[in-house]
Amino acid sequence: QSALTQPPSVSGSPGQSVTISCSGTSSDVGTYNRVSWYQQPPGTAPKLMIYEVSNRPSGVPDRFSGSKSGNTASLTISGLQAEDEADYYCTSYTRSTTLVFGGGTKLTVL
Amino acid sequence: QVQLVESGGGVVQPGRSLRLSCAASGFTFSSYGMHWVRQAPGKGLEWVAVVSYDGSNKYYGDSVEGRFTISRDNSKNTVFLQMNSLRPEDAAVYYCAKDTYTWAIIWYFDLWGRGTLVTVSS
Fold first, then answer.
1. pLDDT tens string B93-104
2. How far apart are CA A64 and CA A38, in angstroms?
3. How far is CA B58 from the centre of its chain?
4. Tens digits of residue pLDDT in A43-64
5. Which residues of chain B make contact with A38, given a CB cutoff of 8 A?
6. Across the interface, which of B100, B107, B115 has its CB nearest the CB of A99?
7. At CA B39, angle to CA B35 and CA B43, rounded to 5?
8. For residues B97 and A72, what is the distance between their CA atoms, to the nearest angstrom?
9. CB-based contacts of B119: which residues, under 8 Å, 6+ apart?
10. pLDDT mean across residues, chain B
11. Of B26, B48, B40, B28, which is closest to residue B96 (Cα–Cα)?
């Protein structure tokens, strides 16, 4: 099972919006809505930010939103804040009853 | 206090074995699926394995299938990862993570441990 494809890095200024893409196949993202996003600041464990494509766990700001079209999922962060700087990972359930992560995207807040 | 605490990491030679443990507290451990996820130094996250709430179902990533075994002891609120035939590429921080909903494997993780470091080197 190959990793989902994410851009290595994205950046934006405070207050701006950024979108991180997550490209999979018909064996994972394209077929299943079990898509999630995790935030991992340096030196810490990941935190669930989005599940089931577009749902936010309680406590996650509504600046974070998720969507999916075909084989590609996306995470959009609006109103960027310095505290959003972190690595972001997407995941998807797969046809093989496994989970696959994306390669990760480093978000820099300029 | 709701938490997961991993232990058992260390330095091991290629081809040898290691057993990781993850002790859970603060929630009804026996109701949730539990996962292992690893992260090689400076690299991304990789899902390793999952065990269902009662231990009856287990699934593995391709890179560890046949070498690693996940298990759990609900009487001790602990999940294990037995790692055999270790390779240099298995070196990573190993996190245990709790699945989100009771009784089913939903494939989302709402609680993570701090991880335990495994180094594979001769």
1. 999 999 999 899
2. 11
3. 12
4. 999 999 999 999 999 999 999 9
5. 45, 109
6. B107
7. 145
8. 25
9. B9, B10, B11, B12, B91
10. 97
11. B48
